[in-house]
Specification:
Elements (H helix, E strand, L loop, with lengths): L4 E7 L8 H14 L4 E7 H4 L6 H7 L8 H18 L3 E7 L7 H10 L6 E4 L2 E4 L5 E7 L12 H12 L3 E7 L6 H21 L1
InterPro entries: Flavodoxin_fold, Flavoprotein-like_sf, FMN-dep_NADH:Q_OxRdtase_AzoR1, NADH:quinone_OxRdtase_FMN_depd
Cofactor: FMN
Protein name: FMN dependent NADH:quinone oxidoreductase
Length: 204
Amino acid sequence: MTANTRVLVVTSSILGAHGQSLGLAQHFQRVAQQRGDLTLKVRDVIADDLPHLGLEELSSWQVTEEERTAEQRELAARSDALIAEVLDHDVIVLAVPMYNLGIPSQLKAWFDRVLRAGKTFRYTENGPVGLVDGKRAILLGARGGKYAGTAMDSQTPHITHMLGLMGISQLDSVFAEGLNMGEELKETALSDAHQQIEALVASL
């Protein structure tokens, strides 16, 4: 990355200060702040309380800016701002807990607004093509059990495909797993994850 790399950290734990994925994000931030060439911004989709995407908001995207009502302009502005934020950063860090084998619904609501045809991808005769170039993504995953590399990890492919739809193909993943499988395993998993995060920050 070039000097003054801009990093967007997206957190999505409903457990607040007790969230293990939030802890991974905070460790990333602490290490990153030790460098003088990284600019950090945090987007907490839980605090944002993003609603599920509805028809009225979706419809607001289909209307030209000149034709939108005041309500449609307000609804479209939500997606516009989140997309602009993604485009304004070089690295997207996703701190993601696993809930029932998937991602938090609030994070899905964020993805539903940044994955937008004509803005971050477009449809072609050969399928969708991403419009977001030159970005790098980092997944910080916290999980109570062990799922990475197994058929039960439906979360990682989902995130990979959603990022890929935008054109973000460079994805590094750090998983802290087995966090509910005993204190010793938890401490080892978190320590290993912290070391991997430190190496990733050094590579930015």
